[in-house]
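Figure 2 data, in text form.
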Amino acid sequence: MKRRDFLKSSAVVSASMMMPAFLKANMGFPTYGNRSGKILVVIQLSGGNDGLNTVIPHRNDIYYRERPTLSIPSKEVLQLDMDLGLHPSMSALRELYNNGELSIINNVGYPNPDRSHFRSMDIWHTASNSNDYWSTGWLGRYLDSECLDKPAYHALEVDDGLSLAMKGQQKSGFAMSDAKRIRNASNNPFLQAVAKQHHHEEENVAYLYKTLAETQQSAQYLYEHSKTYRSSINYPQSKFANDLKQIAELITADTATQVYYVSLGGFDTHALQKNKQQRLLKEYAEAIQAFTDDLKHNHLFNDVLIMTFSEFGRRVKQNASGGTDHGTANNVFLIGGQLKKPGFYNNGPNLSQLQNNDLIYEIDFRRIYTNLLDNWLDVNAEAILRNHFKSLGIV
């Protein structure tokens, strides 16, 4: 029996049995289905990854002068072209690069950069200008615009909390770190009893019923689909790798989820950066290798696009503690089997021309979002981003 036919014939328990009648009538939840269209996986490197020691200008004298102990020796760099290469712990990404499955966008940022972790991440999450404060995320507004009739798990964050990027005005994504755990929690007898109540005159109460019903439905659905496929790929032993494994299993199970969001933290390397970043980049690259191998093994790699970003880069000059301080522009990775412009999209940073000792951004990150929304998710990017940004044309 084919995987899709098996899933269609599987007995997935409907959480609608636990919903009050008014919710069944008014919520407009679709029946359980399978995904259609392409899948976007967003990976957030939290803390401000040092882009200069990730994509390394291995022939640049200024880089070695400003980082006398923190720089990566040229002979150790995984050289990708005459000027740039990857950190030696990221050999898995060099293989993707050589296969035409990795696009590296250098000097990504935004006007009037903010060096606060929280504020800069909010700007990336919302796609706002640096002087605007928005309460909805770019993916949340995608859900508002295109997915009101979709279930909550149409956009899934593998975490216990939901990022601002996934929050819309009318609809938001669903957060879950473990399908079985959240399913057991949502099946708590008290919560089931609450969900069966019919006191819905108050708008706030009705909203709580709706949220509870969505949680029960999503938890049950994701739990059932999480049991459908077990990966045979050997993933590294880390939480991040396990998160990607969970995503690969859900994708292979034909789960009706189109956007996945996952984070890897620890990149705020003000002190003793060298070993810490090496460990994190190795963890990231090896998990990506297992994840892409898994997708390829199941003939799904061409259906998936992976974007990796961090809220800002680091200063060019190392500090006195063997680390780097908050900076501005950074690199962004796009990984997939249908890249129109694999390899380096643009040149590396100009270290001889800085602004306040920081890299000068060249590519507005919202141009990347425009490309993903217009050409991958096939929606109107300008309406969602609330402004026009020229697409990069990478996908």
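Caption note: The chain has a mean pLDDT of 88.
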